[in-house]
């Protein structure tokens, strides 16, 4: 990923930082929520369709309320992951002076 960001000249920029956080957070959160939705019994979905409810109505009225705890857990993990990367805040890591504020693994790639 560092090589791609370097080729696109996005090192030490807000856009590069946003891309890194999004490319790691979105797949993880999708996987986490998929696992949580798998724990919701299929019979609940069948009960909603048995009452002739629309699929989106069944999802909104029956499935989403049951998925709220998983969604809250996902939000907590998503908001805490950038802060646990041992890097300073995004405001301090993007500078025009090319300071060495980057995660410890990326410092070895700098020239």
TrEMBL record:
<keyword id="KW-1133">Transmembrane helix</keyword>
<keyword id="KW-1003">Cell membrane</keyword>
<dbReference type="InterPro" id="IPR035906">
    <property type="entry name" value="MetI-like_sf"/>
</dbReference>
<feature type="region of interest" description="Disordered">
    <location>
        <begin position="70"/>
        <end position="111"/>
    </location>
</feature>
<keyword id="KW-0762">Sugar transport</keyword>
<keyword id="KW-0472">Membrane</keyword>
<feature type="compositionally biased region" description="Low complexity">
    <location>
        <begin position="80"/>
        <end position="104"/>
    </location>
</feature>
<feature type="transmembrane region" description="Helical">
    <location>
        <begin position="14"/>
        <end position="33"/>
    </location>
</feature>
<dbReference type="InterPro" id="IPR050901">
    <property type="entry name" value="BP-dep_ABC_trans_perm"/>
</dbReference>
<keyword id="KW-0812">Transmembrane</keyword>
<keyword id="KW-0813">Transport</keyword>
<protein>
    <submittedName>
        <fullName>Uncharacterized protein</fullName>
    </submittedName>
</protein>
